[in-house]
């Protein structure tokens, strides 16, 4: 991690420090396109053959049976079950406040407009697998789906035969209707296009590797496919620390981000010019104990320390970067909430480690990366719903609004639009 | 418009009746890709050269001046001004209830989670131009942006030199910060990528022709670009009518949809086997008075009448089709609100013509087409905002949640995630 003083670097240098590890999209899209098209045309059969090829799938069926759910529950360590239940409770408590409310407004006398919310009926959740085991992602996606009231929640995860019991238990306690042992581009395509034996879903959620992301992109721009939650990029963290921050806490947070993968990025912005050295030596020390040390070392290559004058300047920089995760390891962190414009999830004060939000504080960990926090929210209950508007016009309301509609329709030269009103007031 | 009785057609035939006029995407994407890339690389200069080429732009600057705004206001017929102001009031009244509220929850003692909403800072609105003049689209996009509190609202519209005064007046009364005379793929690319003289926006909204739609798709999947409101397809209407519905009203609604373009689609579902004939003869009669008769004739080719047993069956069909616009020209239409799952905007009862919602009832007319109503909302205030989550963990909260986080992190084999908590409870 190189250190820079903000007032000694140029705009161009700052831009370079803030540039994310590139997400090479186009090539990967061309790799997955034939797979996606094949599953689109041939359905389950094609999906299964790719599962055999890429994930060495050797089971009889990709549909997880009730028996498998039950045996997962039996097998799973009680301590993990408790942790999953505790985390679920917090996530549910936070997300249940997100269920949006319908309302009705009489915009003018005789014209009642109404907004109603409806759950998306069929949703697909992608839970990454392979070397990773991610029951937490199952929680973060299935709980808002459940609160929204989705009719059918389907989760998929790549697997050669059996799925880690923690993942199945997380699905079971949160009403996931079916789990399929399939992942990658073939899994995404199966969700998006369906098959006579498997109904397509209406929206796909969840993180994944570059092949999954590319497949999600393809199905999201195909009118025969379906929308997705958000574009995905590597995970990232920005920490703002003042002179009171402990170097060991900061180092631990940096490493918890860095262990995700070599394309992760961490930016530490600090008002203290004395913090960089102890943070770096703490990183070296803590790194030694990590299984995923090599991932972390790679990520640190993309990461930087910036020294600024004051916290206001730090927050301004953070808003420019628009981080997925933002830690404010400073005194009176709450004071700055209103200044934070662009961020996915924010951790206030020295005890608020990012990993608490990753698992159990209650907030969602599916968050916008790559600067998308400027315009996109993390996964919410509303993302599993859509709104429908209604209007009821009485005869009086019609008379009151007719001239406005006719004048605007005629300005736009849409005669039939005007006529639909004229014919109703004529008689 | 061919008529069918539901109980006499097969599933396959129904699917064919419900299939939308195709949106040929891939070819168009290859046409616009070089334009988008050129503007991405060369900015305003390239955009301007395409504006000259495609829209015969001959003005000095694409930025609308204050003088132009003022002269538009002077020139515009008072009646149209009043109509725009009246429509704005209703739209504002309906949309202002959509401003989402922040909240805080203490998920467990010592862990406070919070959700805050922030306006997207820079938004771009696309207002189609060319032969069409669409001040109503300016209203439908700028009003929610204003309510959301976006810092900078930029509207673009193709123009050879001057913009219709109604469009500029609609922008002015709704606080649009700048209007640019540029459209097409080059306009979308300029919004998405910016230029040293024009800051890029964070999200693009608005309808457009197939080139605009393709350009929106391209910038939305480019991490250097920006997200968009929704995928766009041709406009569509589904009408459910009972035996009391007037054929002339229905014909007028059908034509108000059909005049949009030859790729529009209308489905009339009725419980009356006597309605088709008078509706068709009314269509023939009303068609004669329409300037856009040829567009309407084309759209009617894609359109059908389906006769069903009862209203419940009609609504079930409608939910399958997921129409952009749905008219319930039936008795006690409100009774069926809860049954409507998938639709963009719904018009209840015989006086609720679609064109009232298109212009002035208060609801938004930017709506999901092509079946996207299954999973996507029309344009709302929230679409101009995003949420940010916050968490504050006290020392006590940390102690209470630590074991849950550690157990889950260790299940996922993310040591550094566990360590970020361990190091904080150690001392």
What does this structure look like?
Two copies of one chain form a homodimer. Chain A is an alpha/beta fold and 427 residues long. Chain A has three domains: 149 residues, Nitrogenase molybdenum iron protein domain (Rossmann fold, 3-Layer(aba) Sandwich), CATH 3.40.50.1980; 207 residues, Rossmann fold (3-Layer(aba) Sandwich); 33 residues, no CATH class. Chain A has 16 helices and 13 strands. In chain A, the strands form three sheets. In chain A, strands 1-10-9-8-11-12 form a six-stranded parallel β-sheet, with helices on both faces. The model of chain A has no long low-confidence stretch (mean pLDDT 96).
CATH topology of the largest domain in chain A: Rossmann fold
Q: Give me the number of helical elements of chain A.
A: 16
CATH class division of the largest domain in chain A: Alpha Beta
Q: Please name the two chains that share the biggest interface, counting residues whose Cβ lies under 8 Å from a Cβ on the partner chain.
A: A-B, 131 and 131 residues
Strand order of the largest sheet of chain A: 1-10-9-8-11-12
- Oligomer kind: homodimer
Tell me the count of domains of chain A.
Answer: 3
Question: If classified by CATH, what would the architecture of the largest domain in chain A be?
Answer: 3-Layer(aba) Sandwich
* Euclidean distance between termini CA atoms of chain A: 78 Å
Instruction: Summarize the helix and strand pattern of chain A as letters.
Output: EHHHHHEEEHEHEHEHEHEHHEHEEHEHH
User: What are the segments of chain A in which pLDDT stays under 50 over at least 5 consecutive residues?
Assistant: none
What Rg of chain A, in angstroms, do the CA atoms define?
25 Å
CATH homologous superfamily designation of the largest domain in chain A? Nitrogenase molybdenum iron protein domain
């Amino acid at each position: 991690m190189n250190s820079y003083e903000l007032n000694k670097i140029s705009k161009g240098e700052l831009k370079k420090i803030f540039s994310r590890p590139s997400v090479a999209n186009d090539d990967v899209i061309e790799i997955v396109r034939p797979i996606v098209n094949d599953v689109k045309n041939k359905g389950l059969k094609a999906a299964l053959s790719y599962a055999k090829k890429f994930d060495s799938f050797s089971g009889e069926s990709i549909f997880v049976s009730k028996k498998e759910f039950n045996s997962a529950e039996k097998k799973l360590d009680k301590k993990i079950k408790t942790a999953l239940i505790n985390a679920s409770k917090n996530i549910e408590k936070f997300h249940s406040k997100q269920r949006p409310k319908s309302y009705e407004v009489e915009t003018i006398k005789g014209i009642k407009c109404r907004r109603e919310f409806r759950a998306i009926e069929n949703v697909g959740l992608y839970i990454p697998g392979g070397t990773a085991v991610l029951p937490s992602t199952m929680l973060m996606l299935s709980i808002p789906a459940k609160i929204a009231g989705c009719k059918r929640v389907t989760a998929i995860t790549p697997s050669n035969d059996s799925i880690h019991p923690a993942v199945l238990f997380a699905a079971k306690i949160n009403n996931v209707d079916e789990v399929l042992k399939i992942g990658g581009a073939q899994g995404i395509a199966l969700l998006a296009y369906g098959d006579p034996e498997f109904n397509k879903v209406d929206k796909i959620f969840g993180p994944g590797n570059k092949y999954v992301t590319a497949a999600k992109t393809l199905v999201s721009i195909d009118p025969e496919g379906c929308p997705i939650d958000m574009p995905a990029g590597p995970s990232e963290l920005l920490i703002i620390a003042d002179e009171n921050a402990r170097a060991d806490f900061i180092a631990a947070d940096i490493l918890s981000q860095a262990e995700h993968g070599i394309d992760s990025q961490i930016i530490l912005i600090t008002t203290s010019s004395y913090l960089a050295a102890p943070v770096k030596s703490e990183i070296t020390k803590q790194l030694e104990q990590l299984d995923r040390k090599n991932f972390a070392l790679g990520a640190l290559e993309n990461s930087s320390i910036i020294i600024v004058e004051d916290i206001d300047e730090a927050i301004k920089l953070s808003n420019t970067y628009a981080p997925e995760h933002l830690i404010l390891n400073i005194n009176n962190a709450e004071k700055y909430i209103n200044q934070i414009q662009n961020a996915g999830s924010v951790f206030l004060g020295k005890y608020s480690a990012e990993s608490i939000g990753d698992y159990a504080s209650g907030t969602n960990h599916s968050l916008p990366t790559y600067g998308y926090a400027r315009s996109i929210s993390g996964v919410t209950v509303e993302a599993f719903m859509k709104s429908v508007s209604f209007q009821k016009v009485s005869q009086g309301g019609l008379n009151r609004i007719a001239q406005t509609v006719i004048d605007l329709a005629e300005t736009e030269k849409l005669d039939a639009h005007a006529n639909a009103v004229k014919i109703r007031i004529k008689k």
